[in-house]
Each structure stands twice: as structure tokens, then as C-alpha cells.
Design brief:
By secondary structure, the protein is an alpha+beta fold. The chain has two domains: 6-91, no CATH class; 92-121, no CATH class. Helices cover 26% and strands 12% of the residues. The chain has four helices and two strands. The protein has helices at 6-15, 19-29, 45-49, 83-88, and strands at residues 35-41, 68-75. The protein has a two-stranded antiparallel sheet. The longest helix has 11 residues, at 19-29. It is extended, with a radius of gyration of 19 Å.
Length: 121
């Protein structure tokens, strides 16, 4: 789906609120796979202690002085067959992920194994 004007977006949302979801599903079914590059900002812990912005606020970038480092790509290349098991359960708590990135002061950053107690996040 191409970008919409504000008026077109309001019209679509009122007349057919599922249009963007259907467009995504149909695109994937037709072999047009959307993808996004994933970035991280890595800041020195000493600088983070006195930083002016909450560095754990996922809605903000730290600063232009701390570069965005690309580390992966997310590609949607398959539609779910069973939405509950393939999409709903995928949104489980971070402690149920299969790999360990280490403990963090912020639960959004804490990705641990199934055997790690939640208290360590």
C-alpha cells in the first residue's frame, strides 16, 4: 500500500479498518516480503549514569553523538497458519526467549533463557 494522505487514512480507517492488515497479508502471500533493518545504540555505562535522557525509554534515540549500529534485519516472509500459536504466543515475556543477552536494569533489554529466574531481569 502506498503512503496515504491524512484524509485518505481517515477514510480507510473508518470504511475498512482492516485494510492495512489485509494488504500486509496479501503482500506476503504474493512473495513481497517487507523488511526492516534493526539498529542499536551502545553507550558507555559511565556516560549513561549522568545522561540527560532516560536511556531505557524505547521511544527515544540516545543522541546523534552515539551512532546507530545496524545489527540485523527483520523480514516477514510467511503468514501465520495458526495466529494464536504463531503470533500471540510469540509475544511472551522476555524471560521465555531462547537466548541470553544478559541482565539489564530495563526489562525491554533483558532477554534470558527459560531457566533464568524472572528476578534476574
Amino acid at each position: 500500500m502506498a503512503n496515504l494522505t491524512q484524509a485518505e487514512a481517515l477514510k480507510f480507517s473508518g470504511e475498512d479498518p482492516d485494510s492495512t492488515t489485509r494488504d500486509l497479508f496479501n503482500s506476503i502471500a504474493n512473495g513481497i516480503f517487507p523488511s526492516w533493518t534493526v539498529y542499536a545504540q551502545i553507550i558507555d555505562p559511565q556516560l549513561a549514569e549522568n545522561y540527560t535522557t532516560n536511556i531505557f525509554d524505547a521511544t527515544k534515540s540516545i543522541s546523534e553523538t552515539v551512532p546507530l549500529i545496524p545489527f540485523g534485519k527483520i523480514t516477514l516472509n510467511e503468514n501465520p497458519v495458526n495466529f494464536f500459536t504463531e503470533a500471540e504466543q510469540a509475544a511472551s515475556p522476555p524471560k521465555r526467549q531462547l537466548f541470553q543477552a544478559g541482565a539489564s536494569a530495563e526489562t525491554q533489554v533483558c532477554i534470558t533463557t527459560r531457566n533464568t529466574p524472572a528476578s534476574e531481569c
